[in-house]
Every structure is written in structure tokens, then in C-alpha cells.
Design goal:
Radius of gyration: 21 Å
CATH class of one domain: Alpha Beta
Strand order of the largest sheet: 4-3-5-6-7-8-9-13-12-11-10
Shape: globular
Bound molecules: zinc ion
Distance between the termini: 42 Å
Length: 406
Amino acid sequence: MRRSVLEPWIRARTGCGSREELDRWQLERLRQVLDRAKECSPFYREHLRAVRSEDVSNRADLEGIPFTTAEQLRAGPQSWLCCPASQVERIVTLKTSGTAGAPKRVFFAQEDQERTVDFFAHGMGELVSPGDRVLILMPGQQPGSVGDLLEKSLARMGVQAVQGGPVADIRAGYDLLRTSGCGCAVGIPVQVLGLAEYGAQLPPKQRARVKSVLLSADAAHPALIRRVGELLDCQVFNHFGMTEMGFGVAVECSAHQGCHIRENDILVEVIDPSTGESLPDGQPGELVFTTLDPRAMPFIRYRTGDMGTLLPGACPCGSFVRRMLPWGGRLVGGGRLWALDGVLLACPGVVDYALEEGTLTLYGVIPPEPENIHRALAEAGIPVPERIRTRTIAGFSGTGMQKRSL
Ligand SMILES: [Zn+2]
């Protein structure tokens, strides 16, 4: 088994050759980030008033640093900036799913985008080699979008990118996968599942040949990952990304036992979401991120609202780079939705689902026949919705999934 491709990259960027060295390096970087944020950002000057960077000498000391939240970011993103506004190259606006509240805005300087490109250019080494072609099924039209940055990264590796955009039309997306000569695709989990289900309906000779797939943008349940791998008969790699972190956070190695974290740029903690206390490795909780790179907008102990687990010990691939399982869904209502994902996305034929006002709608390329759905839901301890109906799905709207409200 090949060691995570992130390890030689992180060694080169940090000069660290062991877990202990990297832990010390991260804390040193964190102290610098704290000092710079207090000096340059009006928000952090106030927010970190009681924090002295010299008091942070081990991981337990992190607990003395107050969290930041999406609400604080919404309230005044400009005040988080540590550089002149003229150095901001790209602003990403994230609309909130509900109606309340201002959208989140995240600012990136050219150096921030370069670090993401550098991460992708090494992380994609898990899937592709020079001369390969990759179909990008993510937004890629705008400069600085995730697809655009990925294309730049692939070019550095000698890998050609084909921009397909999110899968608005499943048939057209599959045709592109089959005819573009790409042995690798990067896409949004349910959208890739839609393509995989579509292909499975075709005679074997008309199917696309894919060696590997990278799933990104949404948390991919293991049940979905398994089905994509079976239907496309390929290796599936999971990537955890987040816009605030410059899109890239952690990527699986060929051991497929958790995603190795981009530890030269991001420090990951897991906390108990109700008490805020740090949790030991192996225990699921809320993911909390701190950026360690000198970026336009630092995130210091930023509560993501996403569930996940830091895995204890070294990876079977032999790497000392920390791993996380980005599994569990969103914090609010996420537990139940994640459990639903586990039941519904494991059902043959189901590509996506909607849950609204007691009605569960299952979508498939052809209408799914969920005969055993009642039993499967009951076995998972999930209350069976009042009404279950099935629909066909021909495409997806933007990057989103169907609406799921509890
Ligand atoms: Zn590994």
C-alpha cells in the first residue's frame, strides 16, 4: 500500500519528519497566527483580548482560546481581514439555506488560492498521474472557483482537466464521462451516484470506464461511497472540503480509512458541541478548524457545525499525518439525516431523497422500488414517514441536494 501522498508534501512544506515535530510546528504556527490576527484584524483584536500567544504551549492550551462561529462571520466579515482589502482576490458568498440571517462571505488573497492549488496538486496524486485526464463535475466557470483551482492544480501535475460543471442533466453528464476519455471524475456525492445508477441501466458495452472517483463538497455516507464504487467498478476517494478553508481540508489515501488532513495549513479539533470541551481522538463531535497559513482571513477555532471524528494512531498506509472521518452530517438535525442517508442511499436504485412535512420522496434514474424500506427504517430506529413516494430524477439543480427538513 502506498503511503499518503500528503506526507512527503507536508514534510517538504514544514520540514517536519515525525508526528511530534509536526505537533510542535503546528503550535508554533498557531502562536504566530494569534499574534498576527490580534495585530491586524479589528474583530480578533477584541475577540482575543484575553489570549496571550505565549500561553499556548501544548494542545490542551487550545481550550483557552475562544471559538469563532458562522454567526460572527456573518456579522462582519471585513473585520476578520488581516490584509488590506485591495489584496483580496476573490470573495465567496455563501447563501444560508434558511431565510434568516446575512449570507456568509469569505475573502481570499492570491496566496490563499495558491495554497489550495498546491494542496490539490499534491492530494490529487492519490488518484491520477501525468498524462491522465480528469472530468471535473464541480462549479468551474469563475476564476477562483473550486473547479478552476482544481484545473490549475492538475495542469501542474501534467494532468488534463475537462470542465463538466455540476450534473444538471444526468444523461448528458454520463455521455461526457463516457466520451471525454477521462479515467477519473471529481464530483458531488449524490450527483456521481446519479451517473453511476444511470450507467448501470445501460448494456455493459455502452458504459463509461472509470478508474477512480473523488467525492467532494458534501459529506458522503459510507453507504453511498460503497454503491458508487460497485456501480462504476472503480476506486472511490473521499475528500472533505469547506469553502471557509479554501475548499480543501482532507483527502483519503489508498487505505480508505479516514481522510489525511492538510496539516501544514489547518489544525483540526473535535469538541463536544454542547459543552465546548475538547474530545479525545476516536470520539465523534463537532469539527473545529484553525487555519495555520498566513491568509487574508484567518479562522481561529472556527466551529464548523459539521460532525466528524479525529482518528487515533497511525494510518495503515504508514503515514503520521493525522486523519479525520468527516462522517455524521450537520450538527443540527444531522444525526437523524445521516442515519437516513445510511438507510436510503444504501437502497439499490435510490439516488437522492427529499423529506418534507412527513412525506419521504425517493428519487431514482428509474423509479426505485423500495420494498424493504419500512423494515430497513424500523431496524435503524428511524420513525417511518407518513407517506413514501418515488420519482424519477433527470438532473440536479446547482450543487444542492433535495430538500430535507425534519
Ligand atoms: Zn493513509
